[in-house]
Amino acid sequence: MSKKINIVNRKAKFNYELLSKYVAGIVLNGSEIKSIRQSRVSISESFCKFDDKGELYVLNMNIEKYSFSNTEDNHPKKQRKLLLNKNELKKLLKETINSSNTIIPLKLFINDRGLAKMEISLAKGKKLYDKRETIKDRDNKKALDRLKKIKNQK
């Protein structure tokens, strides 16, 4: 495993206030993991949802078809099961039912053992004024860093 695979949802921190993070395994078939190793995945529009049995699934995660695969049963945006322990699932289910929180994927990566893992977060959606505040803080930080850099050069 010489190449590090790290697919990041860059919009997550801007659109949501992140509350708590978890690392979950994903149930995949052979051609899907090979596509992930080629970085042919998008998680920017994906989200997680519980089914009737209390199992957590990631929806809208786009895994492109592996080019050398001979199977025709690949659906790029099918729901894929996430693997967490019972206590974590109960806690997440309780948090999503009781409050208006959602579960979003932050990062998809391959660990040292070669298994695909997804970092998910319990998140609360930001309002428009919160997003403006985030933009303002980011611009102020850039301006301050620029001034520090100019001052250090003199």
Please provide a written account of the structure:
With 154 residues, the chain is α+β, with helices and mostly antiparallel strands. The protein has one domain: Beta Barrel (Small Protein B, Chain: A), CATH 2.40.280.10. Helices cover 33% and strands 32% of the residues. The chain is built from 4 helices and 9 strands, in the order βαβαβββββαββα. The strands form 2 sheets. A 7-stranded antiparallel beta sheet has the order 1-8-9-2-7-5-4. The longest helix is centred in the last third of the chain and has 26 residues. The radius of gyration is 19 Å and the shape is globular.
Key traits:
single chain; 154 residues; alpha+beta; seven-stranded antiparallel sheet; Small Protein B, Chain: A; 33% helix; two-stranded antiparallel sheet
Describe the structure in brief.
The protein is built from four helices and nine strands; from the N terminus they run βαβαβββββαββα. By secondary structure, it is of the alpha+beta class.
- CA(first)-CA(last) distance: 45 Å
Poorly predicted spans: none
Physical arrangement of strands within the biggest beta sheet: 1-8-9-2-7-5-4
- Structural class comes to alpha+beta
Identify the CATH homologous superfamily.
Small protein B
Rg calc: 19 Å
Task: Return the CATH class.
Answer: Mainly Beta
- Kindly state the number of beta strands: 9
